[in-house]
Design a protein that fits this description.
Elements lengths: L22 E3 L3 E5 L2 E6 L2 E6 L5 E4 L4 E2 L1 H9 L3 E5 L6 E5 L7 H11 L1 H14 L11 H23 L18 H23 L16 H7 L7 H10 L5 H15 L2 H12 L22 E3 L3 E3 L6 H7 L1
Parallel strand pairs: 1-5, 2-6, 5-7
Antiparallel strand pairs: 2-3, 3-4, 7-8, 9-10
Helix pairs in contact: 2-3, 3-4, 4-7, 5-6, 5-7, 5-8, 5-9, 7-8
Length: about 325
């Protein structure tokens, strides 16, 4: 059931993999127009179909109407309120999800120490092109991952001719960072937004991380790390090589193009399922069961789950 009692035919909604990766906007007013949102400023307006959008990133100077937020959430789009250039996330609004099966599976894997270790090792193994020996400890795997990342930065530095002195940036002094660090922060913010949308749109929790922990987006960081060496690291050095003029905007535009051309949006959901030990399936925006509409189940310590939507007073009086 959508807000204000308006019903949405979730079977007609697009697959997550058919959506755009993200759209960043600043200094505009966002309004609703039928099945689209319209971005307006003094130069004119641009209509964006909500069904084609996965993430809308709202930068400084944006005003968004209540109706526009409703239109975005009805089609499962995520909304992120962020800082200039999309670098710092202040808040987020999430699209609708109809079932909790994926979340419950994630919680069970998180809460069981042995299963959590299996998930962590799967996450690390997905980052390597060659298989890792089964007898490696987690500390040894982390060491190999550190070498892999260090070599990726060194390779990107050699190819671009841009010196690399390490990952250094200060959110409070953005312009003091060197160009490659600024481009890398911008590219990673775009990647986080897309991974966040994939996580919440398919019913998982962004906070229940396995490698990362303690942050509201820990699981988002887990998933994003699967793709950084492949996508955002070389992209950031490429952007830095082209100079500092309009660096953040150019980086966002190239991210959108590279994410699309690499088929990233079609890979994220199956990868999430794979690392959690689920059967990888097509990247559907929503999982919908026509027989699962409306009635919520009730937890029972013996039976597991019982039907909701009925009065158990007579039963309790009989058994008391």
């Amino acid at each position: 059931m959508a807000p204000f009692g308006r019903r949405v035919d979730v079977q007609s909604l697009p697959r997550f993999g058919d959506g755009w990766t993200f759209l960043y906007a600043e200094h505009v007013r966002v309004e609703r127009d039928a099945l689209a949102v319209v971005l307006r400023d003094e130069r004119g307006s641009v209509a964006v179909p909500t069904a084609a959008l996965s993430v809308l990133m709202l930068g400084p100077g944006v005003t968004i109407t209540h109706a526009a937020v409703t239109a975005l959430t009805e089609t499962g789009a995520s909304i992120v309120w962020c800082g200039e250039a999309g670098v710092r996330c202040y808040a987020s609004g999430l699209g609708e999800t109809h079932r909790s099966a994926n979340l419950l599976h994630q919680v069970e894997a998180y809460a069981d120490e042995s299963r959590r270790m299996e998930v962590v090792k799967r996450m690390y193994r997905l980052r390597f092109s060659e298989p890792l020996p089964d007898d490696l400890t987690l500390q040894q795997i982390r060491g190999k991952e550190g070498v892999r990342v260090r070599e990726a930065y060194a390779e990107a530095s050699r190819k671009s001719g841009i010196p690399w002195s390490g990952r250094q940036y200060d959110r409070g002094a953005w312009n003091k960072a060197d160009p490659v660090n600024r481009a890398l922060s911008t590219a990673n913010a775009c990647l986080y937004g897309l991974c966040h949308a994939a996580v919440v749109s398919t019913g998982f929790s962004p906070a229940l991380g396995f490698v990362h922990t303690g942050k509201a987006l820990s699981f988002v960081y887990d998933i994003a790390d699967l793709y950084k060496v492949e996508l955002t690291v070389p992209l950031a050095f490429e952007m830095a090589r082209q100079g500092t003029a309009d660096l953040e905007r150019r980086t966002r535009r190239l991210c959108r193009s590279r994410f699309y051309l690499s088929g990233l949006i079609r890979r994220i959901v199956p990868d999430i399922q794979r690392v959690l030990g689920l059967k990888p399936e097509p990247a559907d925006l929503l999982v919908h069961d026509a027989d699962d509409e409306g009635v919520v189940g009730l937890w029972d310590p013996t039976l597991g789950a019982v039907s909701g939507g009925q009065n158990y007073a007579d039963e309790s009086e009989t058994t008391s």
